[in-house]
Amino acid sequence: MKKHWYDYLWVLSAVYLALGFFNILFAWLGLLCFFLPLLISLIRGTKGYCNRYCGRGQLLSLLGGRLGLSRKRDMPRWMRSRAFRYGFLAFFLTMFLVMLWNTYLVFSASQDLKQAVTLLWTFKLPWHWAYRGSLFHDGVAQFAFGFYSIMLTSTLLGLITMALFKPRSWCVYCPMGTMTQLICRAKAKHSDSSGGAL
After folding, report:
1. Which CA distances in Å does 193 have to 182, 189, 190?
2. For residue 4, what are the β-bridge partners?
3. Rounded CA separation 113/161 (Å)
4. What is the distance between the alpha carbons of residues 117 and 139, in angstroms, rounded to a whole number?
5. Could you give the CA distance from residue 86 to residue 89 in angstroms, rounded to a whole number?
6. What is the DSSP secondary structure assignment for residue 108, as one 8-state letter?
7. Taking CA atoms, which of 150, 155, 167, 198 is between 20 and 30 Å from 122?
8. Residue 118: which of 19, 10, 27 has the closest Cα?
């Protein structure tokens, strides 16, 4: 099978995690993985990002498929259910809002910068070596610490479900995948209603 340039985007996912270890401000690059899926689904009405351009999905396929680090078992039905996927999306968005709130508190000088990465939204890991100050406000770094925490946590969840189940099991309940699916359904429904009106 012929390889395309986008088949190697898993490298960017790995490099992103590595860069955040050395300088937390690189975490801002992760916003591309946040906005691109939404833009593609809004413009094209497809899950093209998830199916073709998602570096994390490719990385999980590589580790679980080619390198055999997956048990390759089906996920439990409850993890594939709509209730779980929507519930996880709601939880994810809540944690994202908490991160934005903490960022606001630092920008408003109501709270000092916390140089820690929170893993699984619970365990605070000291990460002070990754930030030694910059020309930007500390709030910029606070957002980076929070966003890197989300990206690292979601990657860890992806690796756990990859090991226990099929390689890309994370994709079943990935919040971005759920959001793009909702957008695609809404666009399809709008197209159907518009076509019917004509």
Report:
1. 16, 6, 5
2. none
3. 33
4. 15
5. 5
6. T
7. 167
8. 27
**110-117 long-range Cβ contacts below 8 angstroms, 24+ apart:** 112/138, 113/138, 113/139, 113/141, 113/142, 113/145, 114/142, 114/145, 115/24, 115/141, 115/145, 116/145, 117/145, 117/148, 117/149, 117/152
Q: Whose structure tokens read 């500390």?
A: 138
> How many CB atoms sit inside 10 A of residue 105's CB?
15
Write the pLDDT tens digit of every residue in 100-154.
Answer: 999 999 999 999 999 999 999 999 999 999 999 999 999 999 999 999 999 999 9
Alpha-carbon separation of residue 87 from 38, 82, 84, 129, 175 (angstroms): 19, 8, 5, 35, 10
Block residue for tokens 């190697």: 8
Q: Nearest Cα to 38, choosing from 47, 51, 27, 29?
A: 47
β-bridge mates for residue 124, sequence order: 118
Largest Cα–Cα separation, the chain: 61
What CA–CA distance (Å, rounded) separates 131 from 159? 27
pTM above 0.90, yes or no: yes
